[in-house]
Amino acid sequence: MDNLTPFGLIPDAKRAGSKTADIMGIMIDADEIKQVKYGQNNVQHFTFVDSDKIPICVTLWDEMITFEGHALLEAARNNSVIVAKRLAINHMIRSLSLQRTLHLSPSMRQ
């Protein structure tokens, strides 16, 4: 699990030109699924904290809510560590959107 970005360094990564980040944390909250008013898209926000207890919002859209969102909710019930790869860093800096891969309870090298 090399190259994980601590949540506190995501603004620096954005300023340095990074468009994505790999993160690891524990989910502490999940909003209800909402329909975006200007379209037929569904959105759900999840709040994570890292080892420094810095919060960040991860947003899932449409069909990702059905599969990855369900897996996140199940992992939260078990207080599982979650690794998400290639999250898009949006303009709000403290918010990410899942685009690629989600690993629940990853095996970590010491």
Automatic annotation (TrEMBL):
<protein>
    <recommendedName>
        <fullName>Replication protein A OB domain-containing protein</fullName>
    </recommendedName>
</protein>
<dbReference type="InterPro" id="IPR012340">
    <property type="entry name" value="NA-bd_OB-fold"/>
</dbReference>
